[in-house]
């Protein structure tokens, strides 16, 4: 049962996108924190809390992940390695080592499996906490979940014999970590926070105010806090689907959608630009809408718009291959039996993450159609040794990720390796350079030159 909280939003401090000067942090080592899950969300928040004077232990079920943190592996960001060099983080894979914490921050994955939310990691984390939960403890769920999940976790945590709001406290403070973002970070990103009652909300607000340098908006209920992140990311997915559908339409009409979007972006209000591409990857945008779809089903509602957007975005890898097929036909070549250089495997520019990457779908579609694929990605060690090795002798190239290294490619870089068909899946190349270059260039919604 949720009481309506009086909403007082923090006076938004001038969040310049940079962290406040690192003044000496107060000593809070009497307050022990356990961060459960040391991924791209948990590690930054553990390091942030530690930098603010808390005594932090990072817990992860993965020995490899714990070892990577302990050794400051290259897979960590430079900031994370620097913070760990200044103050090593206590880490463990043994849940008994987090028994002495009084604040538990849960940052475990919430993937979808066959388009259905998989809450096992979250439930497992809560069972570990329930085994050590003590009076006065605070549990914060930062993982992205659909509305109602946090409430469903309360009975798991009350197996400790303790009652929420009376003996222990719970908040949901969804993370907004944006991999690769240099402007916003775990400390400066504004947040929302929800709780099952006033006392939990107050406890949660106090804690997060002590580590964040950003506005913190209390929501009326847990469900509202859970819905915020879902809505944010679903908003992005449907807007990407909108421009992807336009791209397929305008390709037939010889209209360059990029130019149209540049024009529409001159409108100073009520237009937010998104860009068409070969698909939507990552662990957020293509995943979160399924949470809302599932939540709707639980309440007897069928989301048609969210589903349609997912169908459109999931079609883009196939659309990209269809552009390649048409271009090869102009070279009197068939897709089957051709060799294609696939440039980019990760889901996003200049990041290592390959989860849900459309490039993998493109590769699967090509290989099923009898294509020999040579992939190269500077951020994915499993690929070809070099760009040249991937291009040399290929019939065509597909740019599937707009890495900085690929954005500077010119017709010369392709022609010197004999590649005369280029499909620009991220519209990141200079289309006009390819005019009259002897190369067939196709963008997504940019037509063909
Ligand atoms: N994409 C498009 N067109 C676009 C934008 C993205 O096709 O206009 C594709 C990307 O290529 C990628 C996928 O969508 O494959 C996701 O891209 P993303 O920029 O949304 O990257 P994410 O998954 O890292 O999203 C995060 C989200 N942040 C959080 O959930 C805290 C999202 O809410 C942010 O809007 C996004 O970063 C961002 O703005 O960078």
Q: Sketch the major β-sheet.
A: 6 strands, parallel
- Look at the helices and sheets and give the structural class: alpha/beta
Oligomer: single chain
What portion of the residues fall into strands of 2 or more residues? 5-15%
User: Which whole number gives the mean pLDDT?
Assistant: 92
Looking across the biggest beta sheet, what order are the strands in?
3-2-1-4-7-8
The Cα radius of gyration reads: 24 Å
Helix content: 25-40%
The number of strands is 15
Distance between the termini: 61 Å
Output the number of helix runs.
Answer: 14
Task: Write the H/E string, N to C.
Answer: EHEHHEEEEHEHEEHEHHHHEHEHEHHEE
What compounds sit in this structure? ligand SAJ
**Poorly predicted ranges:** 1-22
User: Which term fits the overall shape?
Assistant: elongated
What features would you describe in this structure?
The chain is α/β, with parallel strands linked by helices and 449 residues long. Helix content is 37%, strand content 14%. It has 14 helices and 15 strands. It has a six-stranded parallel sheet, sandwiched between helices. Strand 9, helix 6 (198-211) and strand 10 (216-218) form a beta-alpha-beta unit. Helix 10 crosses helix 11. The longest helix has 32 residues, at 222-253. The chain is elongated and about 75 Å long. It starts with 27 loop residues before the first strand and ends in a 6-residue tail after the last strand. 45% of the residues are buried. Residues 1-22 have low confidence and may be disordered. The structure holds ligand SAJ. Ligand SAJ is lined by residues 176-179, 232-233, 236, 240, 274-275, 277, 280-282, 284-285, 347-348.
């Amino acid at each position: 049962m949720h009481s309506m909280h009086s909403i007082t939003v923090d006076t938004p401090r001038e969040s310049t996108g940079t962290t406040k000067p690192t003044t000496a942090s107060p000593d809070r080592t009497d307050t022990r924190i356990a961060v459960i899950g040391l991924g791209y969300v948990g590690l930054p928040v553990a390091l942030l809390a530690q930098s603010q004077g808390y005594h932090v232990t990072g817990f992860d079920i993965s020995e490899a992940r714990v070892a990577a943190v302990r050794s400051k592996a290259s897979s960590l960001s430079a900031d994370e390695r620097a913070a760990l060099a200044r103050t090593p983080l206590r880490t463990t894979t043994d849940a008994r080592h987090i028994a002495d914490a009084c604040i538990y921050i849960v940052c475990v994955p919430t993937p979808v499996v066959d388009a259905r939310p998989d809450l096992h990691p979250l439930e497992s984390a809560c069972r570990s906490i329930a085994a050590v939960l003590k009076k006065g403890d605070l549990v914060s769920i930062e993982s992205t979940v659909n509305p109602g999940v946090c409430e469903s976790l309360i009975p798991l945590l009350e197996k400790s014999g303790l009652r929420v709001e009376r003996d222990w406290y719970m908040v949901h403070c969804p993370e907004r970590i944006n991999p690769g973002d240099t402007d916003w970070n775990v400390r400066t990103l504004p947040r929302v926070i929800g709780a099952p009652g006033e006392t939990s909300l107050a406890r949660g607000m106090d804690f997060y105010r002590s580590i964040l340098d950003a506005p913190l908006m209390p929501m009326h209920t847990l469900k509202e806090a859970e819905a915020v992140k879902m809505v944010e990311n679903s908003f992005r997915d449907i807007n990407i689907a909108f421009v992807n559908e336009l791209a397929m339409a305008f390709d037939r009409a010889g209209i360059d959608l990029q130019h149209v979007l540049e024009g529409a972006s001159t409108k100073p209000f009520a237009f937010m630009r998104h860009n068409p591409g070969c698909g939507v990857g990552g662990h957020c945008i293509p995943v979160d809408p399924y949470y809302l779809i599932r939540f709707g089903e639980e309440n007897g509602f069928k989301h048609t718009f969210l589903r349609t957007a997912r169908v459109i975005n999931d079609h883009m890898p196939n659309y990209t291959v269809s552009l390649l097929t048409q271009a090869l036909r102009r070279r009197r070549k068939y897709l089957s039996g051709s060799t294609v250089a696939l440039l980019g495997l990760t889901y996003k520019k200049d990041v290592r993450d390959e989860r849900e990457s459309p490039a993998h779908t493109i590769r699967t579609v090509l290989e099923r159609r009898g294509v020999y694929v040579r992939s190269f990605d500077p951020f994915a060690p499993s690929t070809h040794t070099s760009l040249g090795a991937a291009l040399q002798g290929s019939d065509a190239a597909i740019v599937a990720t707009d890495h900085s290294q690929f954005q500077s490619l010119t017709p010369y870089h392709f022609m010197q390796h004999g590649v005369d068909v280029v499909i620009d899946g991220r519209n990141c190349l200079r289309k006009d350079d390819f005019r009259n270059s002897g190369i067939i260039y196709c963008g997504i919604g940019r037509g063909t030159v």
